[in-house]
Amino acid sequence: MEVQVAPLRAWDDFFPGSDRFARPDFKDISKWNNRVVSNLLYYQTNYLMVAAAVVSIVGFLSPLNMLIGGTVVVLVFMGFVWVSHNKDILRKLKKQYPTTFVVVIMLSSYFLISYLGDVMVFMFGITLPLLLMFVHASLRLRNIKNKLENKMEGIGLKKTPMGIILDALEQQEDSINKLADYISKAKE
Q1: What DSSP letter does each residue of 132-159 carry, written as one string?
Q2: Which of 150, 156, 101, 152 has the alpha carbon at shortest distance from 130?
């Protein structure tokens, strides 16, 4: 299936007043994870624009260190994904605790970058955009369009860059299983 770029959502939908934001239910990790995944899929182009702006500013100020930092993070991410596909214990950890998996990748990248380059470039150029995305995706309430886009991505009707990343983190399979359960209950 061909990869499609998700549309840029209106900025007043992306960051409206406080009425569309709420604290997640920290007691229900599954629901919180579902909110984050849905928002990451729905607002992925907006997140890309925000991240590109931050990376551009930091890259302009320190291009070599930004290049080194970005390369290290990509290589560490690919290495962890490859290892987790070959080791069942890591695969289960990645599926059950995706945030922990990402934190381990970021900490590993941090330590490698501390030997190779400027740590502040890593903090502002790489970690800050990821943190902004995670905080927004955690706090932003979903709407009907958001839920529909997530279902279409989950069942394979659409394939987007964020969907590919979430597949690598094994966060899409639960959506497919939930949709299959919902369909089977609707038939009964």
Answers
A1: HHHHHHHHBPP-HHHHHHHHHHHTTS--
A2: 101
